[in-house]
Fold these 4 entries.
Entry 1:
Amino acid sequence: MSDRLSAHIRNFPSINWEASIDRPNTYMETLVKETLTLNKVLSKHLPLSTLVCIMGPVFENYKEKLMEVYSTVELKSEDAKKKMLKDAELFHEKLAKLDGCGGTGEVILEMVKGKMIAGTS
């Protein structure tokens, strides 16, 4: 999953944060779908304790990498912030209840909420 996240992050420079805010960006929709699929497959074949041991580091990596890349994005408008917030909300909404997630979704969501728009203080 680390490789999948890295592939999504490589596309960050091409994301138009000023685009329509009616839906999350494709990278986040895909990341959430891939994570749900992994969790579903693992939960069918592994005991809960093993599932948590696998998914915990996955979510820790998500938290580290997403917060790192989000911190580098310069938001130029309120719409850009809403677009990023839409991504963070999808992550939190769909993945927060998975075993091993911990507070990853909440941490990412709060980080995005706290981001400043360029030119404001």
Entry 2:
Amino acid sequence: MADKKEETKPQVTLDNIEQPELMKKFDFWGIGEFITFLKNPTRIFFLNLLAGLGRGVGFAIGFTVLTALVIFLLKRAVSVPVIGNYISQLLEFIQAQRQTVR
């Protein structure tokens, strides 16, 4: 009886799918280009290196813009009497550090 249940289950194999339909799906999914890409480890290495460099540069630019925005807002907030003294001391410290780095 167990043999009959196994025989009635439809099996999905490449023989069950027509070749043109399979090729259309592979073409739609880009399987051919992906397999070609995986066969070339040097290309994978350099593509990942380039992607890493791009992420690093993007991170650096984003951090610079964010820091500039925070400093700009802190300079605007110096006129607030509650935190003005603290922020002015912080900005003086930042200016002193910039001078020592240069």
Entry 3:
Amino acid sequence: MSINSPPDGSRRNSNTFSANEHEKIGDDDAKLGKKVLRRLLHLHKPETKILVLGCTAAAANGAILPVFGLMISTAIRTFYEPPHKLQKDSVFWAEMYVTLGVLSILIMPVQFSMFYMAGGKLIERIRALSFTQVVYQEIGWFDDPLNSRYLFFLLITPDEFHYLRAS
């Protein structure tokens, strides 16, 4: 009897299902998708600040190309100006292009690193939750071939083939 099992010894809280039980549930895929998305958003709540910073960097990165197009269209006008103004404006636009390039080089790593950090923490949290769910299952749950240790390793670890060869 496990810690989470009821005192009368029933297996009501066991998460094992037969193939027919899934058909009886009949959850609509759209409803299930919304529930999964809602759960993922709830699990991502601690990284909200990181995600907002990543989304801001992604928006800035996405705005660079349209700004570049606008800058090119206005820079073309400088070719039709007098020579003294042409030299002054061409230096200005060259500095603007360099600034835009430096901004792009700085924004992209921020965007990627923020999303990598948030995703890594989410994966860590999901692995910890799935491990605790497996640990607190009843002993009979492990007798089912669908719940073998190999499938458990495949779900928990990224190096599943390494663990399969070792065991």
Entry 4:
Amino acid sequence: MTDYPPPPPQQPYGAGPVGEVTLSQPLRGASPRDAIVRFFKKYASFEGRASRSEFWWPWGAAVVVNMAINLLLGADSTAGSIIGGIFALAILVPSLAVGARRLHDTGRSGWWQLLWLLPCIGWIALIVFWALPEKAEGDKYNVA
């Protein structure tokens, strides 16, 4: 019979991992819940860096919420348009902020988000930039 080491101590429900990452550092391998919480905690913080999971989980959640609004209220209804517009405005600033931090993690300036104004080509370029792994050049955007 093989003796295995004892399991690590369990954290209380809702507690972060041992050695939790501060808000000033990117959270690599973030869970959906952690990524969405950080998305709103760093509402208008354009400084620092964001990991891929920290960027993509809120993006996916926004798509799901938008689809739910359209399905429940109707995409063509007045209520659906109003609620959808309010939701879009509510996440506009944090979306721009996390996008800038994600670009910082790839070694680029947040101003690259202006590519969003170029239909198709700009969108594809930004999606590729956001999907790239982190680079050492992004260290210059670290917040102490």
